[in-house]
Design a protein that fits this description.
Elements: H1 4-24, E1 28-31, H2 32-37, E2 45-54, E3 60-69, E4 74-82, H3 93-102, E5 108-114, H4 122-132, E6 144-148, H5 150-160
Helix pairs in contact: 1-5
């Protein structure tokens, strides 16, 4: 499958990995739309998929996941970005970062990156921008934003989701 079709398949493998990590830790996987209709039907350890938010441009946006844990007391939005070959995903990182700090309502966000197609310096730029807090969220809330590759995400999950 050349081109965009291949990128979608490999990107989906990243999302499948996230689903497997959370479900193996006892989280229930459900679409946000179904959960929103009747949240009382579901448990308290959830991985919601296709989760909406309002972007910095005031458009409808969606992220892959929102992990909610009553036991661990968190709500973590999870973005997955895969770049197998040269493309435009890396050009969207500043937009993604501004959405994380200004538009996404959660105080903790994880960005998982995968693939070897990112331009040199893109992922380090994102990590350094977050570390140096070059931009901050408007208002009193400080957000925790983490950038992981798949291996780092799995290590985080093994430590955090006990």
């Amino acid at each position: 499958m050349p081109g965009k079709g291949q990128a979608n398949v490999t990107g989906n493998l990243l999302e499948i990995s996230v689903k497997q990590v959370f479900t193996s830790k006892g989280f229930e996987l459900i679409s946000y739309v179904e959960w929103k209709k009747k949240p009382d039907l579901y448990g308290k350890e959830l991985l919601l998929k296709n989760v909406p938010y309002r972007t910095i441009y005031k458009h409808d946006g969606r992220t892959e996941f929102l992990a909610i844990s009553e036991r661990l007391n968190f709500k973590i939005r999870i973005e997955c970005k895969w770049q197998q070959s040269n493309g435009s995903v890396d050009e969207k990182f500043p937009y993604l970062y501004l959405n994380c700090i200004e538009a996404m309502p959660e105080n903790e966000i994880i960005i998982i990156v995968g693939g070897q197609g990112f331009k040199a310096g893109v992922v380090p730029w994102l990590k350094n921008t977050i570390k140096e807090k070059k931009y901050t969220s408007p208002g009193p809330t400080t957000k925790k934003i983490s950038v992981f590759n798949l291996e780092e995400f799995m290590a985080w999950a093994n430590k955090t989701l006990r």
